Amino acid sequence: MSDTPAHSVAFVRETPIPPADPPATERGVIKWVRENLVSTPANAVMTVLSLVAIYWFLALLVPWLLNGVWNAGSIRECREIMAGSGGGCFAVLTERWHQLIFGRYPTDQYWRPTVAFVLLFVALAPVLFQTVPRRLLIFTGLYPFLAYWLVWGGSILGPIFALAGFAVGYIAYSRLVDRSFAMGFFGGVLAAIVTWWITGFLADATGNVMALETVESRDIGGFMLNLILGTVCVSLSLPLGIVLALGRQSSMPIIKWICVVFIEFIRGVPLITLLFVANVVLAYFLPPGSNFDLILRVIIMITMFAAAYIAEVIRGGLAALPRGQYEAADSLGLDYAQAMRLIILPQALKISIPGIVNVAVGLFKDTTLVSIIAMFDLVGMVRGPILASTDWNGVYWELFGFAAFLFFVVCYGISQYSQWLERQLQTDRR
Amino acid sequence: MKKSVFLGALAVSGIAAGAASAATLEDVQARGELNCGVNTGLVGFAAPDANNNWQGFDVELCRAVATAVLGDPDAVTYVPLTGKTRFTALAAGEIDMLSRNTTWTFTRDNDLKFEFVGINYYDGQGFMVPRELGVTSAKDLDGATVCIQTGTTTELNLADFFRANNISYEPVPIETNAEAQQQYLAGACDVYTTDASGLAATRAAFENPGDHVVLPEIVSKEPLGPLVRHGDNEWGDIVRWTLNALVSAEELGVTSANVAELANGTDNPEINRLLGTEGGLGEMIGLENDWAKNMLEVTGNYGEIFERHIGENTPIGLARGLNAQWTDGGLLYSPPFR
């Protein structure tokens, strides 16, 4: 009898059995369906109900989109072409798209806001993305003046002089700030005002240099107006909000109480009230004949409103920082400005990103409220001129659907960016 | 009411502040533009078309005044105003005249310190019902559900009407005209009530307008007209007589087609006075003598304007009704040009 297994047993498997496939119910599509759709009787019922709901929704939506009429002169013509097929009357979009986007902006000047819109992304790139060359920040600084000139037109000297004022103010600030911050700040403001005052005479004397056709504020409308209000107000309210949040935590009572009163007052008042004040009541306090630009008034009001909310969001971020961070900054011998700039704010702002984005998205959508004070933004354009035209009265879904689509694209973009940014800044212990 | 008192107080302070610019005519001529307040959008009455040109029944009056004063129908800056911003804009001097389907009421005229210079459209609250209900009179509406915009005078008028006729109804409160259209079409209410011109415009937008009828009863008075600020009677006269000229021209048979021919002189002295070949009436209100002729060439007479924007050949299809000449059984009655 040999000891080797080969002789002691009849058969020895020398290679492992290839693994069998899992049972049909435990793999592939079937497994996924079992686990996700019909794992319990209750879930099975929910699945069926959901499928019915989705079918019902698509059965309404798909024919509406596919049978839509894109070429017609009026809603009556649309209905004739459709002959009851249940399609949408998208012809209103093809005929009035320029009003939805640009409002009553002169037709032959559409290239101007379009260029400004494209350049907006160039200007935003270095602010939003760390990898973009830092030199582009110079363009970001110039962009507001360039965009103003493009959108409103007029002589280019106006924006240039405005820019010069800021430049002179900054130079004065950087010269004086060594002695004290307050001196630098007020010196800078004073220098800027003096520059503007002097260049005011120059602008009158020089007339139109590289002048674009002037466009009145009341002709600016459509989605362009929402974008202008949204971008300007968000970018202005963020620094203002930071200042207010820091001011509210200040140990100096006057500054603290100014900030508290401002924030609490603005947060206690509906935005629509502020807009009415901007539109209606201010006219009584200004001297007769003086025409304080309506868009500017609205920008001021929306900025104040958003700044109050952003201040509270940032205050939350400041409060969430452990006490040790403040003490660490102090123990390093940093003064207030340095501690805030280098230690506290970077951390506090990072915590506040979701809240700030929330405010920004809300603010952007709130810009449609200006339609109530007779400004023709996207919604104002739909509710006013387009629905009131004899041709298109009665087209609701297509117009408001288009408006919702435009807003969704922008707001979803903002939200995706903020999530990406949070992941980028993810340096802590989570 | 509370609000109008508040606005009135504001308006008064506005007048006090704006008293310096009493001579509106000179202001307009110096500016070369008429600032005219219009609706942000009301079917047939005011709305910009696809090329951003304002069109509509109320807009024509702005064009007529601009032609009379400046000789150019396009020298108008249209200031779109909502129901809430219209009075303050006028009181603050942002606009020279308001031509925005505004009902002439006692408080607006006196409390808010405005001057209504006339009536360019006699409106009134009406009822619309589906034809299949077979209702022919509003008095048959006992027990009906009624869609009604909340917070408006129509709500009060409705209650008055049903109480006076001793019949009952069930209100379905809605917020906007757009909502009303949807609710009514979805059958949430049997009846929709609002101003008759609004009913006609709403009905015109329906897929099958023929399935709905506007009942003959009109239960309120809504005289709509242009208005100006108190305190500048010369300017008020210009707007008033511009409107009267449009009405008179129709009565006298002067149209945009024949005005050039008639302006060479006719046997009818009133036509001659209207068109400026006799009497020198234009100079009396600070305008050229042929102001009305220029204006009628551009806009046509009242009847032409009506037919162009809201008349029976438009999708809105309003009948002249009360807005016919007094000679045709309507209420339009211009004082004579004499």
Short description:
Chain A has 430 residues and is mostly helical. Chain A is 70% helix and 0% strand. Chain A has a domain at 96-105 and 220-430: MetI-like fold (Orthogonal Bundle), CATH 1.10.3720.
What does this structure look like?
Helices cover 70% and strands 0% of the residues of chain A. Chain A is mostly helical and 430 residues long. Chain A has 17 helices and no strands. In chain B, the strands form 3 sheets. In chain B, strands 1, 4, 5, 6, 7 and 13 form a 6-stranded mixed beta sheet that branches. In chain B, a hairpin with a 5-residue loop joins strand 2 and strand 3. In chain B, helix 3 crosses helix 9 and helix 3 runs antiparallel to helix 13. Classes of the chains: A mainly alpha (430), B alpha/beta (338). The interface between A and B is large, with 36 and 44 residues.
Total strands of chain B: 13
Biggest interface pair, counts:
A-B, 36 and 44 residues
Strands of chain A, count:
0
Q: What's the name of the CATH homologous superfamily of the domain at 96-105 and 220-430 in chain A?
A: MetI-like
Mean pLDDT of chain B: 88
Could you give the distance between the termini of chain A? 67 Å
Cα gyration radius of chain A (Å): 31 Å
How would you summarize the topology of this molecule?
The complex is a heterodimer of chains A (430) and B (338).
Chain A: H1 5-8, H2 28-36, H3 41-66, H4 75-82, H5 91-102, H6 111-128, H7 136-152, H8 157-176, H9 181-206, H10 222-248, H11 253-267, H12 271-285, H13 294-320, H14 323-331, H15 336-366, H16 378-386, H17 397-424
Chain B: H1 2-18, H2 24-31, E1 34-39, E2 47-48, E3 54-55, H3 57-70, E4 76-81, H4 86-91, E5 97-103, H5 106-111, E6 114-116, E7 121-123, E8 125-130, E9 144-149, H6 153-164, E10 169-174, H7 177-185, E11 191-195, H8 196-204, E12 212-214, E13 222-229, H9 233-252, H10 259-262, H11 269-275, H12 281-284, H13 291-299, H14 302-309
Parallel strand pairs in B: 1-4, 1-5, 9-10, 9-11
Antiparallel strand pairs in B: 2-3, 5-13, 6-13, 7-13, 8-11, 8-12
